[in-house]
Amino acid sequence: MTDRPYAALRDRLVGFNGVVMLLGMAETGKTELAKLIVADALAEGTTVAFVDGDVGSAIAGPPATSGLKYVSDIADLDPSVPPVEMRFVGSTTPQGVVLPHVVAVASLVEIARPNAELVVVETSGVVAGVVGQTLKYHLWELIRPDLVIALQRGEELEPIIGMLRRFLSARIATAEPAEEAIASPLERQERQSKAFAAALAPPLQRWRVQTTVFAPTLPEGFDPARLDGMLVGVLDDEGRCLGLGGLEYEDGVLRVATHHGDAMRGLRLGSMRIDLETFDTQRVRLRQLIFGI
């Protein structure tokens, strides 16, 4: 990615400390810009944290999660480097999970603030309609970034930019994305499947679980067979996400397939089913799954 379109923006960020939040549709180069900003800050001796608030990506943790990395070298932003903290959101799109999405990202920024002079927050590519505007409004409200950088090809972010400026007095810089190849929805889906495959690569351990270990809590009389194939977040005793798991129901027994069973203390239900052989996914409405409505 060429850095020429961002020369003035990068000059503006020299010596900048605080929280920078990146906005933009999918394939507008948010990750690439984040890397440029991080590299510049590291060259100045600034301590840097990166919060991956794009649940469809895998920069800091697998898809369906948000992750935090402290970056001492640009190579730390490679997906192969695990995050220091992770939160399970349960979906690869904010639709239907705006609350857990916002809470996940905000909690990671809160952890990062005292430990880094610069915190770079990448956000989801969902920017349109009620979901996109609601998500970005509440993210800004809880994170209170010192600067928002909006990458837009036309005027697709103007409703969000106007809203943030009008109601929250947000400080916003805009820029056009650098020209680059744009991945198709199929290519993005393939990347996502590969990331799920890496997080749930065999051999997985299978652990028998009871219906009492789940959040949200399952109602009395719930049929555990309905959980077959559901994606879950594996949580430790402090509520931190250790990684992903997939539920399997067979012969009256419910099990979770995961790499993180040794430290597992509970499971968060996601809003997706996942095939542990093909890693194809399907969105699920939790309310409908749990209550049948």
Brief characterization of the structure:
With 293 residues, the protein is of the alpha/beta class. The chain has helices at 7-12, 30-43, 98-112, 129-143, 158-168, 185-199, 286-291, and strands at 18-24, 48-53, 65-71, 85-88, 118-123, 147-151, 172-175, 205-208, 214-215, 230-235, 241-250, 253-258, 266-274, 281-283.
Give the secondary structure arrangement, pairings included:
Layout: H1 7-12, E1 18-24, H2 30-43, E2 48-53, E3 65-71, E4 85-88, H3 98-112, E5 118-123, H4 129-143, E6 147-151, H5 158-168, E7 172-175, H6 185-199, E8 205-208, E9 214-215, E10 230-235, E11 241-250, E12 253-258, E13 266-274, E14 281-283, H7 286-291
Parallel strand pairs: 1-5, 1-6, 2-5, 6-7, 9-13
Antiparallel strand pairs: 2-3, 3-4, 8-12, 10-11, 10-13, 11-12, 13-14
Helix pairs in contact: 3-4, 4-5
Q: Can you characterise this structure?
A:
The protein folds into 2 domains: 4-175, P-loop containing nucleotide triphosphate hydrolases (Rossmann fold, 3-Layer(aba) Sandwich); 200-291, no CATH class. Helices cover 28% and strands 27% of the residues. The chain contains 7 helices and 14 strands. The protein has a 7-stranded mixed β-sheet with strand order 4-3-2-5-1-6-7, sandwiched between helices. Strands 8, 9, 10, 11, 12, 13 and 14 form a 7-stranded mixed β-sheet that branches. A hairpin with a 5-residue loop joins β10 (230-235) and β11 (241-250). α3 packs parallel to α4 (129-143) and α4 (129-143) packs parallel to α5. The longest helix has 15 residues, at 98-112. The chain is globular and about 65 Å long. The model has no long low-confidence stretch (mean pLDDT 93).
